[in-house]
Amino acid sequence: MTLLDNLRSQFNDHVAFSEKRPGIQQLVAPLYHEDGDMVDIFLELPRNGGNQVRICDFGMTLMRLSYSFDVDTPNKERILQRILSENQLREENGNLSIEADIDALYPAVLQFAQGVAKVGNMRLFKREVIASLFYEMLQEFIEERLGEYHPQSITLPIPERDDLEVDYQLEKNNRILYLFGVKDPTKARLVTISCLEFQRKRLPFKSMVVHEDFEGLPRKDRTRLTSACDKQFPTLEDFRTNASQFLEREVA
To answer: Is 134-251 in CATH node 3.30.1370.10?
Structure first.
């Protein structure tokens, strides 16, 4: 029984093979992405009496993903690499693959299909992924657009209080601004405490808060934070649109 015959038998004859070129077979199997499309699986058969089969997709999965979801930030790349690592997949120039001994080919194909489907699913939880990237997107904007203010990340204005961190310190013309990103009530309360303590110490600063969703915070947290800080941007998009103009006025 050949390698392909054995694999067909393990799938109870519910698979087929199509030779793409010598030594490479496409596996047509009832293994699907969440949207119903069949998972692209190719088998690079052993050569010269070898025992290893390379299972790969020839870049089809990441190409499909790119139609609706770009892996275009470090955090998205980390999410992708974590999925690959958890499923023991390799990625080389977009080609996802896994290698298996001939006698372990069937479970390896199932493992590959599961991992590839998870990669493809990144586009289906697009909103959740983007929501989780609030702090990274804030960082990217600051680094790319606010370089003239010499941003310093994670500073401690009161050295003995390492619980009162500033996300970014901006400075120009001897004016210091402390910038905070706020995604949830816990961070809102910490920023409120921090600003009040910095004021109590009479530090020379202005505070800025960038919210993921200001209206999504509990009313009491919104009230306390509004009282404690100098300027708030209700969304990241608002900050992107208006930050430069606001900062120009502050340091003039």
So the answer is: no
Q: Where in the chain are the domains?
A: 3-131, 134-251
Residues 109-118, mean pLDDT to the nearest whole number? 93
- The strand pair at 175-182 and 206-211 is best described as parallel
Name, in order, each residue with C-beta under 8 angstroms of 241's C-beta and a sequence gap of 6 or more. none
Q: With beta carbons less than 8 A apart as the criterion, state whether 166 and 179 touch.
A: yes
Domain over 3-131 is classified CATH 3.30.1460: yes
**Main-chain dihedrals φ then ψ at residue 214, nearest 5 degrees:** -60, -45
- DSSP three-state, residue 22: coil
**68-107: pLDDT as tens digits:** 888 877 767 878 888 899 899 999 999 999 999 988 999 9
Q: Is 34 in contact with 90 (CB distance < 8 Å)?
A: no
Residue 130 has a pLDDT of 57
Q: Which helix (H) or strand (E) holds 186?
A: helix 185-200
The pair of three-digit structure tokens given for residue 92, joined into one six-digit string: 């080389």
Query: Phi and psi dihedrals of 46, rounded to 5?
Result: -60, 150
Tell me which residue of 45, 13, 44 sits closest to 29, measured CA to CA: 13
For the whole prediction, is pTM greater than 0.85? no
